[in-house]
Amino acid sequence: MNQRDTSRRDFLKSCATGVAALRLASKAWPADACAEAMPLLAAAEQAASAKSRVVVARDAALRGPGTAVDSNRILSLLDRAMQNLFSLDHPGEPWKQLVHPGEKVGIKVNALGGRGLSTNAQLVAAICERLQEAGVRAHDIVIWDRDTDELEHAGFRSSTADNRVQCFGTDRVDYENELETYGSVGSRLSKILTQRCDVLINVPVLKDHDGAGVTIALKNMYGVIHNPNKYHPNGCDPYIADLNMLPAIRAKMLLTICDATTACYEGGPGYKPQYCWQNNALLVSRDPVALDYTGWQVIERKRSEKKLKTLEADERPPRYIATAADERHRLGTNDPRRIEVVEVAA
Amino acid sequence: MARENYARPNSLTSHWMQGENCIRDLERNPLSSTLDRRAFLKCALVSGAALGICDFAQPLAAIPSWATPQKQDDSRFTVEARFYQKLPNNKKIKCKLCPRECTVGDRERGYCGVRENRGGTYYTLVHSRVCAAHLDPIEKKPFFHYLPGTLALSLATAGCNVNCKFCQNWDISQVRPEQVPADYAPPKLVADLAKQHGCPSIAYTYSEPVIFAEYLMDAADAGHEAGVRSVVVSNGYMQEEALKTAYGKMDAVKIDLKAFTESYYKDVVVGQLKPVLDALVTLRKMDKWTEIVYLVVPTLNDSDDEFRGLARWVKANLGVDVPVHFSQFHPEYLLKNLPITPVPTLERAKAIADAEGLHYVYIGNVPGHPAENTYCPKCRHMLVERVGLMAKQILIRKGNCPFCGQHIPGVWA
Lengths: 346, 413
Ligand code: SF4
Description:
The complex is a heterodimer. Chain A is of the alpha/beta class. Chain A has helices at 3-22, 31-35, 40-47, 71-86, 93-98, 121-133, 148-153, 191-196, 239-244, 247-250, 288-305, 320-325; strands at 52-58, 105-109, 141-145, 166-169, 175-182, 185-190, 199-203, 207-209, 213-215, 253-264, 276-285, 339-345.
């Protein structure tokens, strides 16, 4: 363990009291469910009997004196979020339960909002660090979204060099020729998803969306297909839920780490600085529906604070969340009684 | 667009093995091709004979392959859209090109995937961005009463404003422009190419020309200046003002009337019937030469009631002289579970439309069927004999039947 890790552990220890005070009694998932990397399919089946845990980890001092996210503090924040999600004491342990050496891990970011409102590169660096510590080779990690130029505009540096973490867009490798269908629309899937990833970690941004109401975990999968424009009618409902039912997505999805360090409560999904706020938080869950429901409430609270209409009153409630939880989809739960929100503060 | 396949390179490879000596000429990059018409026809006939039909669709362009598309210079193809409205909040716009009326936020695209809001200004991304180009017989569109026996320089860009589950060309219609290779073909080049290849018309086709309206208008203007006409093959799902402006520049229009029920349009097309019927009436009022294709899909739009309803509506609103083509469906895209339309079903559709009094009812996609020919509605003599997509004999003289003098509506020269 290096110097950074030691000091991080000390830091975590110093925060422990606060965490314990906020942590609720039950675990996110039964212990055996966490023992193996649990794909979304299994997660949904578990959802019938267990509460879904969503950890909201916040650090008011995440940016230090400047506006940029501090790389050490974001790693600490990630560690606290993961340890609380898995109820484990050591920062490396959750990752060892999630991934295995030899696995190819995709990190699906959201790079549509440029530098202002895309997945934070420091956060992704922290995830890569923990994955490698868990035994995943750098070359087996791929950070990706739709387009390489968009990734670069968002602050990522594209890379396909040997022995390095890979970073590029689907534009470099194209989409599969065959269509995949669930529901009424057919799509070609990114070859990054189908050929370069055994498992997937979803790292979206917490954003308002002019059609769907919000765009968080489930909608981030629009970046996986060749024709997202065909999924926008009717507030993206049931298209968001349908898309997440595709086996290649459902079976590979391990975890969502939602970047809410900078979030957007109005005017999304494009970056509009006047509607963004430094929220300095991460939302982490293995249930993407519970995470989207929780993120939606965060956005509603901010809208209320800013004296804006609710999304319902603005005629764009995120109906897709209920659809994703319905009998036909069962991608997770949107029932607040079955969501355990664990607030973790620095 | 469903019926008129733009002919993917895969299918053409084996197709062209049979007319091998022509392949080098025909696969040359289109937009600099100097293939002369006689060489083209010779080649097409060889391959057509080998197939048992005269199946044209020679690739004039570097048409899409499944290789990773090369990065394209977006700026060359990006032109401000003609039909949209800026909204007061958050740099949103409302597109007024088709009845979908997408409200599009900044940095987002509309349903068709080829129009993008950039900072509150809406742009088409497909002006002069040609992803498929061929020399086709005009019968392939199909136009049966418009310049029969001629070739049309046929073009498409990526994109479509609906999502028909039976689309034959989904790999260009249901993609974003950057996902398929494309050539830069500005309007004047298109007009020059049409002239060079002896095509009296340019056809906007294969995908859905509604969504490249700005390009189509500019290409039509350039064509007209050079003495080349323009025809469009469209779903007609367009707002009235845009239709009048854009298709006002067309010399002939073919509309795919995909069914005669709203439920089919909602479930199979992802659109609406009413605006298409309105478009047909508007075209009629504009006095545009119009033909209609109805793709008959087994179990989904093949009832007697629908055929009869369609025929009665055409008769009442457009007149008995509008050609109606009942075309055979082939399983494609998201409707692979249905069979090819049985020929007796198409014959039933034709019999119903004939009985309702329509004068020119054709059966399409069934090479060699006698209902591909044009007959005089008065004396029943055959006036245009077609074999596959070739007009083999054209007997019409100055727009009239040479046997009884009956006027045969259409544009014959
Ligand atoms: S043309 Fe495209 S952007 Fe415009 S309304 Fe139709 S689908 Fe939407």
